[in-house]
Amino acid sequence: MSESFLNQPEGASASQAASSHPSRHPDVTGRYYVPGFPIGEGKTDYEKYLKTPELLSLQTPLEQAVSPEEPLFQLTHQASELWMKLMLIELERAIGFMDEDKILMACRCFRLVDDCQMVLMMQVDLIARHISIVEYAKIRTVLGQGSGMESPGFNRLLEMAPCLWESFSALLARRGKTIREIYTDYEGNIELHTLAEALVDYDDLFHKWRAHHFALVARTIGTEANSLKGLSTQVLQKGVKTRFFPELLDLRSVLTNESPVAYGGQPLPQDESAR
Ligand code: HEM
């Protein structure tokens, strides 16, 4: 394979490119520095294992980009799909572990999934903080009718939530426990309780990502504009309100309402020593 660079016609070698440009200088190793991003030849073990030539060819070449901020937009979305792929792999594992009664192993998978979600949220921030409204308007012109609603990773995550719930419920049934029991006697059911809280953490972070993304949309195209699919951005509000495991959240209101309400509505005593 010939050495190629994103900003240079395929087949042109580094030295050819260097000699054709007045500002090229050899570096300390005698190699010429050529502007643009080197895709490399894929000959080293590092490149072979990571498939860097293929990976780095997946982005629109800079000379074809409609905006200098397009690489950030495209890379962020591509990277998000990869992180969602890892989340799906780990969630499949979590289901397997729940089905095998390996509760702590399932919790371990959820920890990684949640850290991936933190990374996804940071990526939303990258766009919010670094893509200007005017540049995004240019990027939109090359997106066709594309929508995040078509994200394969995201849609699979939505599909997987009921499967997680099914495995968790089956595990509780095998142990003869109810959700209520693992919350009221959390110490006596610490493993199941920790797993239930891992599900809540996962749900919470997914919910936060949706809210975070909605804030990004409000900041970039506004809440009164239509999406490229012609949908009102308000469709996102419905997703923001959706929770994967409402049973685990509803229980909190039940337990709170049942708890002793001696303090409820009563002002605290004036004299603190009276407590
Ligand atoms: C300039 C930045 C962005 C804008 C203006 C934007 C805009 C939108 C809009 C308007 C929707 C509503 C559906 C539709 O398109 O009709 C949507 C949905 C979505 N977008 Fe984005 N988006 C941006 C960045 C991102 C990023 C970085 C991701 C990361 C993967 C992403 C993933 C999604 C997903 C998964 C949905 C479906 C959400 C749901 O159903 O709750 N978007 N986006």
Distance between the termini: 80 Å
CATH class of the largest domain: Mainly Alpha
Assembly level: single chain
**What is the number of E strands?**
0
Give the second-level CATH assignment, the architecture of the largest domain.
Answer: Up-down Bundle
Helix content: 55-70%
Which structural class fits the helix and strand makeup?
mainly alpha
Order of SSEs? HHHHHHHHHHH
What's the helix count?
Answer: 11
Low-confidence stretches: 1-15
Question: Averaging pLDDT over every residue, what do you get?
Answer: 88
- What is the percentage of strand-forming residues? under 5%
* CATH topology value of the largest domain: Methane Monooxygenase Hydroxylase, Chain G, domain 1
Strand count, sense and closure of the main sheet?
none
Q: How would the global form be characterised?
A: extended
Ligand set:
protoporphyrin IX containing FE
When the domains are counted, the total is 2
- If you compute it from the alpha carbons, what radius of gyration comes out, rounded to the nearest whole angstrom? 26 Å
Describe the structure.
The chain is an all-alpha fold and 275 residues long. The chain folds into two domains: 14-58, no CATH class; 68-254, Up-down Bundle (Methane Monooxygenase Hydroxylase, Chain G, domain 1), CATH 1.20.58.480. 60% of the residues lie in helices and 0% in strands. The chain is built from eleven helices and no strands. It has helices at 14-19, 45-50, 52-56, 70-99, 103-130, 133-140, 152-175, 179-184, 190-220, 235-241, 246-258. α4 (70-99) packs antiparallel against α5 (103-130). The protein is extended. Mean pLDDT is 88; it is low at 1-15. It binds protoporphyrin IX containing FE. Residues 76-77, 80, 123-124, 127, 131, 136, 147-149, 151, 154, 210, 213, 216-217, 220-221, 227-229, 231, 233, 235-236, 239 line the site of protoporphyrin IX containing FE (HEM).
